[in-house]
Amino acid sequence: MCQATTVGFVIAPILGFGKDEWILPTKSYVPYSVSKILPYAATYLQQTAALFYAVMLNVSFDSLVYGFTIHACAKWSTLSFLIMSQATAVGLVMAPILGLGKGEWFLPTKSYVPYSISEIFPYVATYLQQAAALFYAIMLNVSFDSLVYGFTIHACGQIEYAVVFLIYEFTILDAVEVIRTRDHIHELTEGLFLGLTFLTLSVKYANFLLRENKVSELLDYLRIKMCQPKNSTEQLIMEEHNRKAKWSTVSFMMISFATGLGFMITPALGLLTKNEHVLPLKSYIPYSVSNLFIYLATYLQQFITLFYGIMLNVSFDSLIYGFIIHTCAQIELMCHRLTENLNCISSERKSQTNVSIEECVRHHLLVKILTRLLSFEFLSMLLYLSGMLLQLFYYCWYGNELELKSKGIATAIYSSDWTKVTPQDRKSLIFIMINSQKGIMFSYHGIFALSLNTFTWICRTSYSAYNLLQQASN
């Protein structure tokens, strides 16, 4: 990929050479004139060599880090597999020793022995022989299996690079096609509507890589003991929100793949019925697809790009939905615990009351930390529009649910038997109620908040813009 980029930089000046343009591969300060062929050729070769070796060194240094990371993962996999296998072997070897205390003479493995082991010496010799055979068999088995695991991990890493390359390549080629067809409104619109989706996906992927540590931090917060259900009622609350998250992901995945299937089937039908070589996606293709083999290869490449693009796009968006839904679940857990604890309060359990309120306050603060760490990015054409609207609707719907759940904390306190608590505890409860009335809302510096009002505003504004463009085109 890097060398292909280098070739592009090197070839571009050669293409302009026939137009008497003296352009160098890279933009840098040259303290002499390159208007003559000899200085130009020397500078061109010098920059080509510098670019080539710079790419080689850059890739080598980065690949060195990747290699060490992959080999470290392989070592951990080998170690864990070895520990599990050795634990099994220890169990097989120790079982006969424990049986000796009961007068039972049996060996670690079930195999044919052509002599009697009723005496101690033949038994011990056979026992040691089988233990050694078992040990070395496990060592060889782990070595061969770990070799396969290593190749598998390496292949998975290469597949990941290939998928990322396909997505970014399509995004770049689509941008080139948009620039080429900027004077033709129909072709420009056709290239933009998918190109912007892939551009957004590229930004999402880069954002995910930059904020991977924060995602891990969010998952760690959700795994702590305070956020786990403590009884059957809380377990039901968590299961309900888990079902919501799964349903959102599955529905979005289904409509996205239905859209992708529509894009893929239309060119296939055109090929079978009219022998038309039309590609599924509108992008710049620097070669002719009139040949059937070249057309099928390009069709397959675009199919893979679209398939993994849908998978990644749905995964990134569903990750956000999932975090919002689980944040709502934590607020509902907190309301349930607050109501339950206050209803069980008696005058003899003042210390437990303070502990319960403190736990709810800590839980509320934890939920606020979760919301601070979250970050967002905001028949084929009909399905595509439905997918985009569903994507936007999920963001706004669950953002609105989070706001309602957070404001419901005060209702949970009112529903409890708060009259039995002490004046000091009432002050704590009042503080919680006042703080909860602000609500938890996702927004970009207070401008675009994730709510149903925002969703309807976007729909109205989009429709108004569509009408304006339609009137202007007429």
TrEMBL record:
Entry coiled-coil feature ranges: none
Keyword Transmembrane: yes
Top-level taxon of origin: Eukaryota
GO cellular component: plasma membrane
Subcellular location, record wording: Cell membrane
GO molecular function: odorant binding; olfactory receptor activity
Name used for this protein in its record: Odorant receptor
Organism (species): Camponotus floridanus
Lineage: Eukaryota, Metazoa, Ecdysozoa, Arthropoda, Hexapoda
